[in-house]
Predict the structure.
Amino acid sequence: MRHQEEKIPGGKLVRLTIKNDGDNRFVQLSGDFFIHPEEGVFLIEEALRDIPENTPESLVQQTIGEVVRKARLEMIGIDVGVIARLYSRCRVDN
Amino acid sequence: MWRVIPLETRTAAENMAVDEAISDSVAAANVQPTIRFYRWKPSAVSIGCFQCIRDEVDVLSCESNHIDIVRRRTGGGAVYHDANGEITYSVIAPEELFDKDIKASYKEICSWIIEGLSVTGINARFRPINDVVVGNKKISGSAQTRRHGVLTQHGTILHSIDRATMFSVLKPSEKKLSDKATTSFEDYVTCALEQGCPSQQSLYNALLSGFTLEKNWKPDRLSEDEKAKAEKLVEKYESDMWNRSR
């Protein structure tokens, strides 16, 4: 299991947990942030599950940004930049 | 016209069920926009809908202290709701009564808290995103969701603090203080009692006047339909499937 967290200055605490179990991949985004509508978090987690581990951070950010735009998610205290950073750090820090 | 449900005391699951039942009724235009005040008995920890229970809560400490744990339908952080130490409010109303901008609507509803606290002589201010502070210490936090055209915002106002219990059941990450003017969670919070408001009753009276200032309102109770919906929703808020979903 890999786990990273970051507190955005003026924002909220964001945590990302990734578990690889054979062919199954578990990705969980957690913290005290706000996403409206709340179900949007599942779309982000699903997108992260499908992103290959060696994907550059900028592309991760772009992919998640698309998900947020398409689903018209409003994010408060969290942004796509921190999600991409945490994803990259999870990849590095085993 | 606003409906105000006066201070009542319920379990954690009941409180969350009642807020959701009211939201459904407001969405169906069956009831007026509603302001509700409540307390929690037994004491409880509520966690934000995106939080992971094992990261935020010392479950064993909760169990040994007979403290309930419930997941809210709103985001935000974990909160210890002392049965004797705080007042919780909820504002449940059609979205169009508030700014479309969620951050602006936090500020508006928090201004009602600030107005109420000022009645007791407490000089508080809004600290974005969703806090009310006295000096740099947090006295109130809120969380909001918008569903089916209805805004639900709930939050707590601390009257007294049992810091030992609060920080035995909550496990806040030190990183949360990284952009705050303090290095300890014990110093990060304050309460109305420490700021000179002697009783919970006087705090409640002040909050009631702050929340209803310049509004048409009447005290009322839950409708029979809301009571029935809430009874069903209690099961959800007592279930592991909901509370331990993260």
Remarks:
- Residues 2-232 of chain B form a domain with the BirA Bifunctional Protein; domain 2 fold (CATH 3.30.930.10).
- Chain B has one domain: 2-232.
- The mean pLDDT of chain B is 95.
- The longest strand of chain B covers residues 137-147.
